[in-house]
Amino acid sequence: MDQVVYPISEQVKEVVQAVVEALRIPKSEEVPPSVAANSFEAEALRAEIIKTGRKLWARAYVDGNGGNISVRLGSKYVLCTPTMMSKGDLEPADICLSDLEGNILAGDRLRTSELLLHLEIYKANPRARAVLHCHPPYATAFALAGTPPPVGLITEYEVFIGPTAVAPYETPGTQAFAETVLPFVQDHNTILLANHGVVCWSDTVTHAEWLVEVLDGYCKTYLIAQQIGKPLAFIPEEKIKEILVLKRRLGFPDARMEMLPELDSEAPRESAELEQLVKRVVARLEER
Ligand SMILES: [Zn+2]
Question: What is the CATH number of the domain that holds 116?
């Protein structure tokens, strides 16, 4: 007997509906801040923030009390670093719990004034689950020059980041400063902040920190390569397109993604349907 084969979009739809049903209870808005702050998930996220803060300090990406880290906790809350503390000295009790308006709901200290920047990114791009801001020297040098580093030189940089943007200068800690990144936050997971530093978003705090490492290492290597006095060899455009296909599969943003449709004219219609489906599911989950 012939087996009936359902289109993949139908199969995925069924799975997704099952997931949505399974996630229905309990709704996160019913979880009060004190319960969210004391959950196992919050404990693990605080540990990840502390570990990442130590990495930032050890790599000299932050000075004094500079830099800040945050991560989303469910759909209503954010855990973030406090103000006026070295990122190398954080303890679990120092980490603040905030809502998406920046009101502190738990924690012994005042939140970072840069939480406004983090919140704008979360609100503008639901794929951002963790945000990290710091002042890595080589990348910040490009931010001072007001220009992103060139692309097309190192594969790892192309895959994880690709073109960065430079957000215009505003006074740090203000709402105006927080909004400077908004034009760039969909197509760029890594943004240079003019006369200041960098901000990265990702799915986890650890991955956001990787972006800073990849960016600053790339800027450093590029500056050293320029000292050699030979013209730099760029990755051919066709190979860059192969990298973009990989990035699309991995779900990484890249402002050059529009180069792909002409190249990928045979891309299956179903992949567009699936993308729409995933967007709808994410929207439904975000509403919880
Ligand atoms: Zn800063």
Answer: 3.40.225.10
Instruction: State yes or no: cis peptide before 26, omega within 30 of 0.
Output: yes
The pLDDT, as a whole number, for residue 89 is 97
Q: Which residues have a beta carbon within 5 Å of ligand 1, which is an ion?
A: 197
Look at residue 83 and tell me if it is in a domain. Answer: yes
Query: For the chain, how many structural domains are there in total?
Result: 1
CA of 62 relative to ligand 1 center, distance in Å: 8
Half-sphere exposure of 92 (CA within 13 A, CB side): 11
* Within a domain: 127: yes
The β-bridge relationship of strands 77-80 and 68-73 is antiparallel
| 114 catalytic residue (yes or no) | yes
Pairing of strands 104-106, 197-202: unpaired
Q: Which of 48, 114, 158, 170 is catalytic?
A: 114
Does a structural domain hold residue 101?
Answer: yes
How far, rounded to the nearest angstrom, does the alpha carbon of residue 107 sit from its chain's CA centroid?
Answer: 24
Assess if residue 21 is contained within a domain: no
Span from the CA of 67 to the centroid of ligand 1 (angstroms):
5
Beta-bridged to residue 133, according to DSSP, are 68, 199
Task: Give the predicted TM-score (pTM) of the model.
Answer: 0.83
Distance 142 CA to ligand 1 centre (A): 15
**Can you read off the two tokens belonging to residue 150?**
């060139």
Q: What is the CA(198)–ligand 1 centre distance, in A?
A: 8
pLDDT of residue 5: 47
C-alpha 67/C-alpha 118 separation (Å) is 12
Q: What is the C-alpha to C-alpha distance for residues 82 and 256, in angstroms, rounded to an integer?
A: 36
- How remote is the C-alpha of 186 from its chain's centroid? 10
Q: Report mean pLDDT in 10-residue bins for the chain, 288 residues.
A: 53 66 57 93 98 98 97 95 96 95 88 93 96 98 98 98 98 97 98 98 98 98 97 97 94 90 55 71 66
Show the domain range for 121: 28-227
